[in-house]
Amino acid sequence: MPTPEEHPMIRHRRTVAAAMATAGLALFAGGAVAHAETPDEKFATAVTAMGIPIGPNEDLPLLGQRVCGMLDTGLTGNPNPVPAVRGVVSTLAGNMTREQAVGLMRASVAVYCPQWGRYMGR
Questions:
Q1: Which among 36, 86, 45, 37 has a CA at the least distance from the CA of 64?
Q2: pTM (predicted TM-score)
Q3: What is the rounded distance in angstroms from the CA atom of residue 98 to the CA atom of residue 104?
Q4: Which is deepest, 47, 51, 76, 98, by most CB within 10 Å?
Q5: CB-CB contact of 40 with 61 (8 Å)
Q6: CA distances (Å), 3 to each of 8, 10, 11, 84, 116, in order?
Q7: Number of H helices, E strands in the chain
Q8: Tens digits of per-residue pLDDT, 65-77?
Q9: Half-sphere exposure of residue 100, counting CA atoms within 13 Å on the CB side?
Q10: Cα separation of 113 and 64, whole Å?
């Protein structure tokens, strides 16, 4: 029987967590870059770093803005943000892993709708 460290799911989660941390650093530690990235470039960098599958005809900035639109609809005036956040993750998880869906939502919030950042958890 594999130890917890050898279990494939634990390794996968650690890999996804490391990718999300890398994406977060890429999103916010861009000071060493010679030119300033646009918000759309920051978002694309974060999504690429997480390995999220994006179709060739997908408008990536629009996807991030749609995530914010879902959060706007679900969180505005709602005293309990949990169902709205879970709903966004469930919607996104149709085409990717749950971890990637959470990462995409967090990247969207960081770039396009930081007012919802307090609901994103750790």
A1: 45
A2: 0.69
A3: 10
A4: 47
A5: yes
A6: 10, 10, 11, 36, 38
A7: 5, 0
A8: 999 999 999 998 8
A9: 16
A10: 9
